[in-house]
Structures are given as C-alpha cells and as structure tokens.
Amino acid sequence: MSLSPLQAMQLAEITLLEPIMSMQIVVPPEHFTTVLGDLTGPRRGMVEGIVEDEVDGTVLTGFAPLDTLRGYSSLIRRQTSGLASYSMTFSHYTPVPKDLQKQIIASMTYNSGDVI
Questions:
Q1: pLDDT attached to residue 110
Q2: Secondary structure (3-state) at 15
Q3: Does pLDDT of 112 surpass 70?
Q4: CA distances from 78 to 22, 43, 71, 74, 89 (A)
Q5: Which of 21, 83, 25, 17 is nearest to 51 (CA)?
Q6: In this structure, how many other beta carbons lie within 10 angstroms of the beta carbon of residue 28?
Q7: CA 114 to chain centre
Q8: What are the backbone dihedrals phi and psi of residue 76, each rounded to the nearest 5 degrees, phi first?
Q9: CA 30, 59, 51 angle in degrees (round to 5)?
Q10: 0.85 surpassed by pTM
Q11: CA distance linking residue 32 with residue 58, whole number of Å
Q12: Which residues have C-beta within 8 Å of that of residue 8, sequence separation ≥ 6?
C-alpha cells in the first residue's frame, strides 16, 4: 500500500510545533487595556506579569506564538500613538492547537492531494 505524504502525516498523528516568544511591552497606562486585549485575544498571548513603573508606565511580560506577532511592532505603535515599546526573544516550542494544525496541513496540499 502506498500513502501520500499527507496521508502518512495524518496516519502518524504528527504534532506540529510553533515557536513561542517571550515579550516585554512597556505601555502608557492610558493604552494598557487596548494592548492587553489585543495580546490575549487574537494573538493567543499569555500574560506572565504586570508591573507598574512610575517612569516608564506599565511593563507587561508574557508569551505569544511567533506567527501571531507579524506586524505587531507597527500595530502597537498605531494603537498607542508611538508611545509603547516592545521586545521579544525566543522562549520555547509548544504544540500548535489541533484546529490550527488541521488548517496548516490542509494548506500544504495542492491539486494532486500530495503535500508539497
């Protein structure tokens, strides 16, 4: 019996991993809820800590998948009128959620049904 690469991946129940980034965001208090909502909503971020700093504003630390951070630098500048700053570094890998994993695998196919 011959299997296509896609069929083999599905049969083997492969788990895809995604890079998770450690983030530090410094944001003025008046923009904090906007930034927090965006990070924990569509970006699937997880907040690790929130520290009030009298000089810099609120310092938010946490984690988010790298894939969800594309364009984040521009977005955070727009949301805060250029007053917030953020940095990120690689932290670890974690399994991709099952629903996203199915979408990723489905997007890897072309007309013949094989993975490219």
A1: 55
A2: coil
A3: no
A4: 22, 16, 11, 6, 22
A5: 25
A6: 14
A7: 28
A8: -65, -30
A9: 100
A10: no
A11: 7
A12: none
Strand pairing partners for 59?
26, 51
Distance, CA of 5 to CA of 25 (rounded, Å): 41
CB-CB neighbours of 107 under 10 Å: 9
Handedness of CA 95, 97, 101, 104 (dihedral sign): negative
Helix (H) or strand (E) holding 36: helix 32-40
Residues 107 and 89: their CA atoms lie apart, in Å, by 28
First to last CA, the chain: 20
For the stretch 62-83, pLDDT in tens is 999 999 898 888 889 999 999 9
Q: Counting every residue, how long is the chain?
A: 116
Backbone angles phi, psi at 30, to 5 degrees: -70, -15
Tokens of 8: 């083999």
